[in-house]
Amino acid sequence: MLLISPDGVEEALDCAKAAEHLDIVDVKKPDEGSLGANFPWVIREIREAVPAGKPVSATVGDVPYKPGTVAQAALGAVVSGATYIKVGLYGCTTPDQAVDVMRGVVRAVKDHRPDAFVVASGYADAYRIGCVNPLALPDIARRSGSDAAMLDTAVKDGTRLFDHVPPDLCAEFVRLAHERDLLAALAGSVKAGDLGDLTRIGTDIVGVRGAVCEGGDRDTGRIQPELVAAFRAEMDRQARQHAAAVAGS
């Protein structure tokens, strides 16, 4: 699945123009961090702006180790109309802390909407900020009752997912997630040139922003519908090529 992250209602309308080419519209606030949380009213407005059948996800933020605070934030996101709730475990330094946070999120979200989808998100460059190891995320997600494990990059300095967790280790992340009946999501300045590796290792959800923004700039560029369409076309091409290679072998 292709997840696209507009930074507000105007970009969400651009996503709506390319709705046939994407699977999930993700609400975040890039100027508040990798998984920066946007306002509840923005989530509501974006939910209203995109087709009813298109899921909306929302980031809760690059959160501290404050389980109660994070649970309330997650409930706010699902009440506002998001059905995918993503939590960036920025301030959790141990797996037990991360599980503690995610268990609260899962209960808060699913008590309100049982069919909502909870994503435990970590960081490929965890070593730079001191949070939990990326390969611990699938087990954290399983122990907490989450539905997916995700990796992004915490520091947006031009480095990318594969600069910190190379494809072979991302493949291990995906394998660990699938062993635990979780979806595996990967993001972090992903480019079209990465799609071959992402397809080969079995990634379930690819998250992008900069790759579909004007000039490739996640901060100053605006999402372009034609770039979303082109990115999806390359995703589909890689999927067909991989399926053919598997069938041939």
Automatic annotation (TrEMBL):
Enzyme class, spelled out: lyase
Pfam families in the cross-refs: 4HFCP_synth (PF04476)
Enzyme Commission code(s) on record: 4.2.3.153
Membrane-spanning residues: none
InterPro entries in UniProt: 4HFCP_synth (IPR007565), RibuloseP-bd_barrel (IPR011060)
Sorted UniProt keywords: Lyase, Schiff base
SUPFAM superfamilies xrefs: Ribulose-phoshate binding barrel
Catalytic activity: 2 D-glyceraldehyde 3-phosphate = 4-(hydroxymethyl)-2-furancarboxaldehyde phosphate + phosphate + 2 H2O
Function in brief: Catalyzes the formation of 4-(hydroxymethyl)-2-furancarboxaldehyde phosphate (4-HFC-P) from two molecules of glyceraldehyde-3-P (GA-3-P).
NCBIfam families the UniProt entry points to: PRK02227.1-1 (NF002573)
Protein name as catalogued: (5-formylfuran-3-yl)methyl phosphate synthase
